[in-house]
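Appendix B. Chain record.
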Amino acid sequence: MPSSSPMPPGTRPDIGQSMQAASLIWQSISEVAAAALIGWGLDWFFDTDKVFLLIGALVGIAVGITSFVRSALKESRRLSSQQRSSTTRKP
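Structure tokens predicted for this chain:
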């Protein structure tokens, strides 16, 4: 009968963590793209020369990095507390 205790990290592939990391990356990319597209639209509307595109891209990068770091820290805290709880249990 297989053991119910969790295996140490790195001993088996964890597809859930890989998918979560991929979703964080795609979220960051989409935030940058959305802000750049909004900037491009404002440039088109106001007939300016890529001023809003640059501002939008910079804002998108800032938002993307901020949300990526927040999500990564949240996941790190979750994994840390999960690891602490698994090491404090008596076998």
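Further analysis of this model is presented in Appendix C.
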